[in-house]
Amino acid sequence: ARHTGPPDGGWGWMIVAGCFLVTICTRAVTRCISIFFVEFQAYFGQDYARTAWIHSIVDCATMLCAPLGSLISNHVSCQVGIMLGGLLASTGLILGSFATSLEHLYLSLGVLTGLGFALCYSPAIAMVGKYFNKRKALAYGIAMSGSGIGTFILAPVVQLLIEQFFWRGALLILGGFVLNLCVCGALMRPISLKEDRKTVPEFLEQDHVPETEKQDLKEMSICSPLIKVWSHECLCYCSWKEYDFLLMPGFMVLAVSILFMAYGCSPLFVYLVPYALSVGVSHHQAAFLMSILGVIDIIGNITFGWLTDRRCLKKHRYFCYLFAVGMDGLCCLFLPVLQNFPLLVPFSFTFGYFDGAYVTLIPVMTADVVGTSSLSSALGVVYFLHAIPYLVSPPVAGWLVDTTGSYTASFLLCGFSMIFSSTLLCFARLAKKIKRMHLRSLTNDTGMKQHIWTNGAIAYSVTAELDQKDVEFLAVDTNSCSNR
């Protein structure tokens, strides 16, 4: 389908539904892997740090391979990429159910499942941005709420599955559930926007492309989506156009802040259940904390998406995002003093709400910075930047727990990391505003003012420069001017 702009509805709501299911099958399932943490640790007899690598590798592979998902989506098909990802993720979970060592789980549940999730996640999110503009934040809020709803439903279900079928049976059932990603992929009908169709014609107007090659490219562009790989020059040009946002100062600052934000948010989903168990909370109550976090995450997704689409807040999405990240950081700082179930429930409410809030705004902010045409590639890079923090932070937190015998150091490090991410964005925006005001004042100081007086046949043009006191008078005879 061809559109001059995003339709903001119609089949777009089916795209939102598909992305909603994708986030359930990817992010919610990844969060629920933390419920297996105690089971894996007891079965294989390993410490916190080694067991935490399973969750780290899943998250890292999902984010590290996100550009690969964007590449397949851009050059082949979003539908093909998501279906292939569903098959890989399901295969990894099924193979993980037969694991005989942690290393086996690293490869199957970690690498293979993470790669499958990567092929699904960023293309599905990018499709929502292509179908919506005016209601983009709301659409993303609904789509991203799948993570919270999935966590709310799956957390107690996975706990029951573990009790009934042991962790092997639970992983096998999750493997079958994740095959629903193939259904989600079938919903992702491609859309051609006006700004997307400018790429090849703009390239064809370049002088260095021969006329015969231009004609061939024009003909093939109608027949094949793989045109960009058939010409080396066209491939280089289109690749540069897809990733030229990397040099934008706004995107650079956002990228650095995301590194710290990702480091701070990951360990909590791994260690919330073990921490609750360590302070005397029962297994069912600990799983219920994850469910609370998940359902409040939904409210954060939808309400923050709806609020930031309002006219009064639409211009302040940037500050809404950094506020949400900062509040999650504060929650992490207070977590070590919450040592019973009644105190952990308000924590799950607060952390879950603001987690849903900033997760919704990540693709919205990315679209505001780079534009819709580069959104898929930009989201691939943004989620790629999550990879290293997601890989490193849970094992580092586990090492701190093993070393200190307490969760305090781990949670404090997470909290300060997220607060630093928020503070960095705040200072970057203030610096940009100060620079803009400085440039405006310089423009006013060096500006030219021109005044013209007319008196009969004589016109005097006076040009005054504010930083120089000299004034030039020019007298021009109107009769001679008219003769010319």
UniProtKB/TrEMBL annotation:
Membrane-spanning intervals of the chain: 12-30, 80-99, 105-126, 138-159, 165-188, 251-274, 286-307, 319-338, 344-366, 378-401, 407-431
Membrane topology label: Multi-pass membrane protein
InterPro entries cross-referenced by the UniProt entry: MFS, MFS_dom, MFS_trans_sf, Proton-linked_MCT
MF annotations from Gene Ontology: transmembrane transporter activity
Record-level GO cellular component terms: basolateral plasma membrane
Pfam families: MFS_1
Primary localization: membrane
GO biological process: creatine transmembrane transport
Residue span, Major facilitator superfamily (MFS) profile domain: 11-433
Origin species: Serilophus lunatus
Record-given protein name: Monocarboxylate transporter 12
Record lineage: Eukaryota, Metazoa, Chordata, Craniata, Vertebrata
CDD domains, per the entry: MFS_MCT12 (cd17424)
Protein family (similarity comment): Belongs to the major facilitator superfamily. Monocarboxylate porter (TC 2.A.1.13) family.
PANTHER family: MONOCARBOXYLATE TRANSPORTER (PTHR11360), MONOCARBOXYLATE TRANSPORTER 12 (PTHR11360:SF318)
Function field: Functions as a transporter for creatine and as well for its precursor guanidinoacetate. Transport of creatine and GAA is independent of resting membrane potential and extracellular Na(+), Cl(-), or pH. Contributes to the process of creatine biosynthesis and distribution.
Cell location: Basolateral cell membrane
Family annotation (PROSITE patterns): MFS (PS50850)
Keywords of this entry: Cell membrane, Membrane, Transmembrane, Transmembrane helix
Catalytic activity from the UniProt record: creatine(in) = creatine(out); guanidinoacetate(in) = guanidinoacetate(out)
SUPFAM superfamilies assigned to the protein according to its UniProt record, in alphabetical order: MFS general substrate transporter
Domain of life, per lineage: Eukaryota
